[in-house]
Amino acid sequence: MTMARLTLTNGKSVVKPFNRIWIVLAVVIVLGLIFGYIIKLDSEGISFKPDQLPIILKKLFSPHRGETWADYFAYIPKLQNVLIMTLEMCYGGTVIGSALAIPTALLSSRNIVKTKWIYGPARFLLNLFRTIPVTVLAVISIGLVGIAGGSTLAGTIAITLFTYGVMAKMLYELIETIDMNCYEAIESTGASHLQAIRFAVLPQIYASFAGYVIYVFEMNVRSSAILSYVGIVSIGTIMRIYEMTDYDKVGGAVILLFGVCVVIQLCSDLARRKLQ
Questions:
Q1: pLDDT for res 174
Q2: Same-domain check for residues 213 and 89
Q3: Does 190 lie in the same domain as 125?
Q4: How far is CA 184 from CA 93, 177, 187, 194, 201, in A?
């Protein structure tokens, strides 16, 4: 592969390195064609009907035949109980999982823990939790406590484990980017590792940690809709019950879920501004 040679104004020549972007682009195109061919083979016999999308959207976000807009929006307040149950489950799981993630994130940070046999297993544990989908965690949780033991408890355990994996991963990556000068200065005074962490590490991650918690809480609220498919009562239960019959009720649940996520996002932006 020939390299372009450039001559500078002082008479010296330098070799311009080959731009690898074209190789990367070619690989991406080839892989795209291969996957497209595989998908085409798998989808034989399946009829795609994009013209049905406007019809489905109309059924979701318009009153049922014979009903008015007042009837459409009157159904949304009836979801209050299941919404509160969903928020309680997500809030509890987010708080507990975030709290458990802090010590694991510290143990996984190479600038805090220098011993490989400590941060290595800690990272392996995080990778293990992060590879398990929240629905599988929910099935495991139901196996532990049973539906009779409370589907809300099973959902809280599943969300706790999911939050733990996500938060610990983000936190230890954040901790590895902090300024360690303050940490080393506090340690040089004879302070313990825990004291150095308390006064040098935690103050640098408070604001980002709060933002992460709110972000994961919003993500848990959205993902809680799928937990209903494994038997856990959530806002998705309404969608599952009426998905094949009353599209307007499913649409009402979607609007409610969207409104909750918007409120959480506004609270997240407000919290970040206050902490900065």
A1: 92
A2: yes
A3: yes
A4: 35, 15, 5, 12, 11
Which CATH number is 121's domain given? Answer: 1.10.3720.10
Query: With 0-12 CB in 10 A as exposed, 13-18 as middle and 19+ as buried, what is 238?
Result: buried
Give me the residues of the chain with pLDDT under 70, please. 1-9, 11, 14-19, 39-48, 65-66, 147-150, 236-245, 275-276
44 by DSSP, 3-state: which? coil
Q: What's the pLDDT at 137?
A: 86
For residue 181, count other CB atoms closer than 10 A to its CB.
9
- Cβ atoms within 10 Å, residue 260: 18
Token pair 């049905």: residue = 52
**What is the Cα–Cα distance from 144 to 155, expressed in whole angstroms?**
11
Question: Which pLDDT belongs to residue 66?
Answer: 61
Task: Give CA separation, 45 vs 38, 52, 55, in Å.
Answer: 14, 18, 23
**Residue reference for tokens 């408890």:** 153
Question: Structure tokens of 113?
Answer: 């823990």
- Which residue range(s) make up the domain with 34? 4-42
